[in-house]
Structures are given as structure tokens and as C-alpha cells.
């Protein structure tokens, strides 16, 4: 059985950390919802699930827009019926007499709108599809971490180094079913079929484009080459992959199946 490494980092429970740092400053109901959305966003970011990253990013943006209207403008709102665009417009149009107000009433709302727009750009076509999707996810994560940093800096009165160290240590609970090493080796701690492992490796290579049959075989370190080729043929017949003279690439159908495999790896990982 082969197996994946997520980098091990100091485990810091986001909800506990933010509660301690912003308790009494930000209403508790917002903190609980924001921390839940961020924890899920980061978890799905590390398994490259762009749909769920987008979903939780959108909810995070909606909650933050409502929070800023609450703190900056004194407005209250039902968290189940947040009017994102109205909130952003109110913040941007409000008076800004200090640099702090510029941050919370202009800069953060503009970043929120950018993240929200990227998340909703279903019909926007990229010239090369794979890499921009990963770039989008990276931008979403970095932008939301920047927003959290501003909340800590401005509302919590922490210095830059404290906030940077805090953000670097933020993580979801370790996934015990997979590891990813710095050289690209993958270890799986949950039984997967060879077919599923092939799809997982193709998913890892997806953002870089096609991968040759020989390189994929070497990455698998699997001794039965004839069986490996048989499975590649089956995956092609089932339309999970596309093959040409430049190598192998996951199809949309293959990507959807890969998402199910990645979710299966998350199940029970915290047990």
C-alpha cells in the first residue's frame, strides 16, 4: 500500500485562539461563525477542494461584511439573511476620517468584494484552466488571512510580529490519513485502490499540466507495470483521464471522482 504528507505545524485551534485574542471586542456570535468558516476553508484548501473553499470563503466574506457594519456603523443584521453587497456599499460610502476607518470601511471591503467575486466567477474562462484555479485559491486564503490580521492588529491591539506568528501557526487538526513530503512523495494511511492512488497523483500534478506515463509510474513505485498500464487503459475508457502525446491529464469526470477520494481521506482523520 502506498501512502500522503501535509506539512506538520504547531497545532493551534483557531476558535480558541481568536476567542482569547478578540473576546469582548467582537460579538461572540460572529466569532463562532467566522472561525468555523475559516477552519473549514483552510481544511479544504489543503486538499485542493476548490468548490468547498469557495463556499466557505463566501460565507466568511458575508459574515465579515456584517461584522464591520455592526462595529463601524452600529448596524445589526440577521446572520441568516446577510446582504453582502448592501453591506459593502454602506461601508465604502461611509465617512473615513482616520487611517483605521480607511482600513475597515474601504480596504477590507474591497478585498472582501474581490474574494467574493472570484468565488462566484463560474462563467469566467481562463486561458489555461488548471494553474489559475490554484492561484485563485491561494489568493482567497491569503486575503482572508490578511483580513484576520487586520482584525487582530486594529481591534486587538497586537503588534505585527505577534500577528504574523499567530497566522503562521493557524491550522486545522492534523489529518492522520495522509502526508505530503517536500520532495512530492505521498503517503496514504488509509487503504486506497491503485486506481484511486493513480487519480490522486494525477490530481497533485494537475496544476502543472500533463504528466508522462513513465513519470507517473515512477512516482507510484509500483512493481507490476503491466497491471499499471491496464488500469491506465481502464481510466481512459471510463473517461476519468485524457491521454495524448504530451501525457496524461485528469478529465472533469476524473476531478469529480478525485474530490470524493479526498473527502474519504478526511473522514475519520481526527479520530
Q: Describe the main β-sheet briefly.
A: 2 strands, antiparallel
State the helix count: 11
Mean pLDDT: 78
Whole-number count of domains: 2
Radius of gyration: 21 Å
Q: What is the ordering of alpha helices and beta strands? A: HHHHHHHEEHHHEEH
Query: Residue ranges: pLDDT <50 for 5 or more in a row?
Result: 1-16, 122-128
Q: DSSP strand (E) fraction?
A: 5-15%
- Output the structural class: mainly alpha
**What's the N-to-C terminus distance?**
21 Å
- Cα shape: elongated
Number of strands: 4
Order of strands, main sheet, comes to: 1-2
Element layout with pairings:
Elements (H helix, E strand, L loop, with lengths): L13 H9 L5 H18 L4 H24 L10 H10 L5 H21 L10 H26 L4 H10 L8 E3 L5 E3 L5 H12 L7 H8 L4 H13 L3 E4 L2 E4 L1 H15 L5
Antiparallel strand pairs: 1-2, 3-4
Helix pairs in contact: 1-2, 2-3, 2-6, 3-4, 3-5, 3-6, 4-5, 5-6, 6-7, 8-11
In short:
With 271 residues, the chain is mainly alpha-helical.
3D structure, described in words:
The chain has 271 residues and is mainly alpha-helical. It has 2 domains: 14-169; 178-266, Winged helix-like DNA-binding domain superfamily/Winged helix DNA-binding domain (Arc Repressor Mutant, subunit A, Orthogonal Bundle). 61% of the residues lie in helices and 5% in strands. It is built from 11 helices and 4 strands, in the order αααααααββαααββα. The protein has helices at 14-22, 28-45, 50-73, 84-93, 99-119, 130-155, 160-169, 194-205, 213-220, 225-237, 252-266; strands at residues 178-180, 186-188, 241-244, 247-250. It has a two-stranded antiparallel sheet. Helix 2 (28-45) packs antiparallel against helix 3, helix 3 (50-73) runs antiparallel to helix 5 (99-119) and helix 4 runs antiparallel to helix 5. The protein is elongated and about 70 Å long. Mean pLDDT is 78; it is low at 1-16 and 122-128.
